[in-house]
Amino acid sequence: MYSAAAAAATAASPPRRDFISVTLSPEEAVGAGSYNNSKAWRRRSCWRKWKQLSRLQRSVILFLFAFLAVCGVISYTSMGEPWKSLTNKSLDDQRTEPEIPGLKLANPAVLPAPQKADANLGDYPELSPQKPPKPPHVRRGPSNLQIKPPRRDVKLKTPQDTSRVVEEPVQADKEEKMEKSVISWRGAVIEPDQSTEPPSSKIKEPEKPSSMEAEDQKEPVPINERQMAVIEAFRHAWKGYKDFAWGHDELKPLSKSYSEWFGLGLTLIDALDTMWILGLKEEFEEARKWVVNDLVFDKNVDVNLFESTIRILGGLLSTYHLSRDTLFLEKAKDIGNRLMPAFKTPSKIPYSDVNIGRGTAHPPRWTSDSTVAEVTSIQLEFRELSRLTGDDKFQKAVDEVMKHVHTLSGKNDGLVPMFINTNSGQFTHLGVYTLGARADSYYEYLLKQWIQGGKKENELLEDYMRAIEGVKKHLLQRSQPKKLTFVGELAHGHFSAKMDHLVCFLPGTLALGAHNGLPADHMKLAEALIETCYQMYAQVETGLSPEIVHFNLHAQKGHKDVEIKPADRHNLLRPETVESLFYMYRFTGDKKYQDWGWEILQNFNKYTRVPTGGYTSINNVQNPSNPEPRDKMESFFLGETLKYMFLLFSDDIDLINLDKYVFNTEAHPLPIWVPA
Ligand code: DMJ
């Protein structure tokens, strides 16, 4: 087309440089030296070219332009939306991607959506206790049951802090209730309605963790070196039990055998929730299998109502709460039902012993009395069983005991005698008062039931407050030379400066009461008493407390505060001091309590650890060169002592949060019934 037009133009008029230059090839133009690539030159050249076209040619070209323009408008409107969203998405991606200089993500808009935090809960990190310096972040409990790891912002409660700290869980609970999800802690899941319902409610199947909760996960608090040492101690104890006593009640670590009390795998059941809390997944699964296959209550065997309630029923209930595995609840219901014949007495004060296979109960052979601590320290467990099953018979039976004891005469300013008759329902052996054996956990359970029930049962609080006043009035004294405050005993008006190690539960209980709003002087007393309990270890040659001490009331040259009688110098690996150290550390944040516990753990390792596995009670805490091993590991060493050690060394207040759980007297945590 250009050639024809050029030829025609050449013939009609003299050649014009600019025109010629357009029709020539660039080489020719350059050769002619006339090529000018300026914008003005190009504009003029196009216009001339346009003018040279025929009208038809111009019309065709204009039509083509118009047609293309219409097509363009149509296609823009149909593609506009996706384009817009793609553009916005890219912007969003830019907002959420961190800006790393020099690094660009390839095709960020087409990356797969991120996985949810719990998409693979089966990936449970294994503990590696061999590497204490940088311990792994561990989610406690078997992976499939793990819900919420602990909070990142670990805070210790101080008395000044209390109001603020208490508000947190309440607010959190409110939000969780609104979402109709579950309240949970590290695998513990409590349905909100379950945690508030009265005993008449029906049991519900546990819920699986929702994806919403998974999103809510927080960074686990790492396990520290001291906690790793507890895990190591537990594994050593467990090795002995597994190798020589598997499925039996107690390990005899020296003779590499076992002893039987009820024939119900007492150590294994007592240790279940400890394994959960310590994160010992493999051990837990193995023990669970034993419960599935071998734990049978249909046995012609006499069990002690109190001991089997606090260790077996309590252990099964807390393991159910932590794991949400209904196996443990079913077993708890089974044993709970089998213990009920104990309450068929003329007074409704239960007998001490029950044959769980035959469904019969009886007092000990030599008396029709029961021990006061025993009949008043089964309430947390039976009440919880009623709440979970919806069957109020368990709670009714134990509440009746408490109501009856509340009205009884024979107390001394709230202090109770040690025995109660199952026929008459009256206290017997009047006039002897102790916070030690046979009475201890009566006081503990007054406070703890009040807390468990949402602080509404005033009679329990009244009895507790009165009893603490009774302790102050009749049982408190100070020793010489260190002026240690201790709790003695009263027998028919005579004060005895004797204190059982068992009494060392008291500082922890007093601190728990103060944390729950009871008078501040309870905390002061707790601080004084825990110092005394620590001295019961520190002043002894092995650094381990004897079963019973006598305090010196008068200064004597060369005498310490603590005296030990030959019959009392054994140590059964008991938990009470470590238990109280745990409460004291939780509520004060004072590291000295952790240090004291650490000393005690080291001394257990030094004097009671058996090289082939297990720990043993000893006969003589005063002889470091021969503490005389007794060849028995009590189940509470795993159920309580090591559990409280682990909790004491933790800085994670959500590791069994004391505003959500109350420990039974065997250290099995049960949920506090949150007020509706
Ligand atoms: C445990 O069985 C319980 O703590 C009980 O309350 C007292 N005795 C032992 C531990 O010492």
Automatic annotation (TrEMBL):
Reaction catalysed by this enzyme: N(4)-(alpha-D-Man-(1->2)-alpha-D-Man-(1->2)-alpha-D-Man-(1->3)-[alpha-D-Man-(1->2)-alpha-D-Man-(1->3)-[alpha-D-Man-(1->2)-alpha-D-Man-(1->6)]-alpha-D-Man-(1->6)]-beta-D-Man-(1->4)-beta-D-GlcNAc-(1->4)-beta-D-GlcNAc)-L-asparaginyl-[protein] (N-glucan mannose isomer 9A1,2,3B1,2,3) + 4 H2O = N(4)-(alpha-D-Man-(1->3)-[alpha-D-Man-(1->3)-[alpha-D-Man-(1->6)]-alpha-D-Man-(1->6)]-beta-D-Man-(1->4)-beta-D-GlcNAc-(1->4)-beta-D-GlcNAc)-L-asparaginyl-[protein] (N-glucan mannose isomer 5A1,2) + 4 beta-D-mannose; N(4)-(alpha-D-Man-(1->2)-alpha-D-Man-(1->2)-alpha-D-Man-(1->3)-[alpha-D-Man-(1->3)-[alpha-D-Man-(1->2)-alpha-D-Man-(1->6)]-alpha-D-Man-(1->6)]-beta-D-Man-(1->4)-beta-D-GlcNAc-(1->4)-beta-D-GlcNAc)-L-asparaginyl-[protein] (N-glucan mannose isomer 8A1,2,3B1,3) + 3 H2O = N(4)-(alpha-D-Man-(1->3)-[alpha-D-Man-(1->3)-[alpha-D-Man-(1->6)]-alpha-D-Man-(1->6)]-beta-D-Man-(1->4)-beta-D-GlcNAc-(1->4)-beta-D-GlcNAc)-L-asparaginyl-[protein] (N-glucan mannose isomer 5A1,2) + 3 beta-D-mannose
Enzyme class: hydrolase
Transmembrane segments annotated in the record for this chain: 59-79
Active site: E307, D440, E547, E576
Cellular location(s): Endoplasmic reticulum membrane
GO CC annotation terms, alphabetical: endoplasmic reticulum membrane
Membrane topology of the entry: Single-pass type II membrane protein
Stretch list, region Disordered: 89-220
Enzyme nomenclature, EC number: 3.2.1.-
Residues at which Ca(2+) binds: T665
Keywords associated with the record: Calcium, Disulfide bond, Endoplasmic reticulum, Glycosidase, Hydrolase, Membrane, Metal-binding, Signal-anchor, Transmembrane, Transmembrane helix
Pathway: Protein modification; protein glycosylation
Entry's family note: Belongs to the glycosyl hydrolase 47 family.
Matches recorded under PANTHER family: ENDOPLASMIC RETICULUM MANNOSYL-OLIGOSACCHARIDE 1,2-ALPHA-MANNOSIDASE, MANNOSYL-OLIGOSACCHARIDE ALPHA-1,2-MANNOSIDASE-RELATED
Descriptive protein name: alpha-1,2-Mannosidase
